[in-house]
What we know:
Layout: H1 2-18, H2 21-38, H3 40-54, H4 60-84, H5 89-92, H6 102-105, H7 132-135
Amino acid sequence: MDKALYFIARAVVAFLQALPLRTVARLGRAGGAVFYWLDGRHRRVALANLTMCFGHEKSAGEIRALAKENFRRIGENFTCAAKTASMTYEELKPFVEFNGPPSIVSPPPGRMPPNILVAIGHFGNFELYARFGQFCPAILGG
């Protein structure tokens, strides 16, 4: 059974890696929307948590919309993580952007950048952290 699950998962990952990133993102969002309806237990938890946080500020419809978007973003993140893991620097470059003061993002030659803290949104592709140095050498101190 483990072997069968491995081959199924590997086939899904290979399929995703063969597609363009934008297509993979759309598929992930669609999959997340499907899981919103299929995964009743986690849907109820998400709705309860959002109601505790925003119940006095947002309507039930707005809370449901937030929960649905959360599931969509999780699906998008999973599929995009599978895709970006196989992308080269050149393939990934159009999708990565660093913003910040020039002294940090691209310090003058021979000058070390100041200490920095890099943050990515909760729904971001955490696997990209390992590749930040390719796009912003200052992060690696050089």
